[in-house]
Design brief:
The protein has helices at 3-10, 26-37, 49-61, 76-90, 113-141, 162-182, 215-225; strands at 17-21, 41-46, 66-70, 95-98, 144-149, 187-194, 236-239. By secondary structure, it is of the alpha/beta class. It has one domain: NAD(P)-binding Rossmann-like Domain (Rossmann fold, 3-Layer(aba) Sandwich). A seven-stranded parallel beta sheet has the order 3-2-1-4-5-6-7, with helices on both faces. The chain is built from seven helices and seven strands, in the order H-E-H-E-H-E-H-E-H-E-H-E-H-E.
């Protein structure tokens, strides 16, 4: 195989720009690292500047060209700033991964209005805000991937999961409608729904972390989505561990 062909296979996203939200740790950081290894220039954002800069440092050390922008993606001015700085540094965004998310797990009668607003704001409204900010340029260029990191909690009910499940069920509905709105413009919108992932995101009392999904498993699913043939798209990936934790 000619050398140029080998390089293209190793770095299929060379020349592309990705934005990953909630990327200072866990699933978001794993996705950013995977896209970087595939050749993309990656912008990352998260609320905590120190953690975000540590993540960016690690990505740079592994060879990824990265831009780190602290931002709260529930706030439209900060979303606009992230998108604008990414355009200025790297150019138009080809891949958006809406990963930022928080959780509150308690019975609905013990859930506060502040809990509801925080979870729905981050897990659902922020996806609307960031996608809305990125979509017009994708439409103009008639290309792009938007990948929303949902959860199997968007399909399954469990005690104490009311507000979190509501956010993820809503996210799936939003994802499917976005896909219909944007597919005629050459933009593919997909959801990744992992089961329990071994991160600091939520307590895993009594579960064996070695049997859980790892952040890199979710990153692998994202890599599959962004390397599909142009005539089709995978609308949803359900991701489970091979063994129950």
């Amino acid at each position: 195989m000619p050398q140029g062909t080998t390089q293209a296979a190793d770095r299929p996203l060379a020349g592309q720009v990705a934005l990953v939200t909630g990327a200072s740790r866990g699933i978001g950081l794993a996705i950013a690292a995977r896209l970087g290894r595939m050749g993309a220039r990656v912008a990352i954002c998260a609320r905590q500047p120190r953690a975000l800069e540590q993540a960016a440092k690690g990505l740079r050390q592994s060879g990824t060209e990265v831009l780190a922008v602290p931002a709260d993606v529930t706030r439209p001015p900060e979303v606009a700033a992230v998108v604008e700085r990414t355009h200025q540094a790297f150019g138009p965004i080809d891949i958006l991964v809406n990963n930022a998310g928080i959780s509150v797990f308690r019975p609905i009668h013990e859930t506060t209005e502040a809990d509801w607003d925080a979870v729905l704001g981050t897990n659902l409204k922020a996806v609307f805000l960031v996608s809305k900010a990125v979509a017009p340029e994708m439409i103009r260029r008639r290309t792009g991937h938007i990948i929303n990191i949902s959860s199997l909690a968007g399909k399954n009910a469990f005690a104490g999961g009311g507000v979190y499940c509501a956010s993820k069920w809503g996210l799936l509905g939003l994802t499917y409608c976005m896909a219909e709105d944007l597919r005629a413009h050459g933009i593919r919108v997909s959801a990744v729904c992992p089961g329990t992932v071994a991160t600091e995101f939520s307590p895993h009392t009594g579960k064996d972390p070695s049997k859980m999904l790892q952040p890199e498993d979710v990153a692998h699913a994202v890599a599959a989505l962004v390397t599909q043939a142009p005539q089709s798209f995978i609308s949803e990936i359900l991701l489970r561990p091979t063994q129950k934790p």
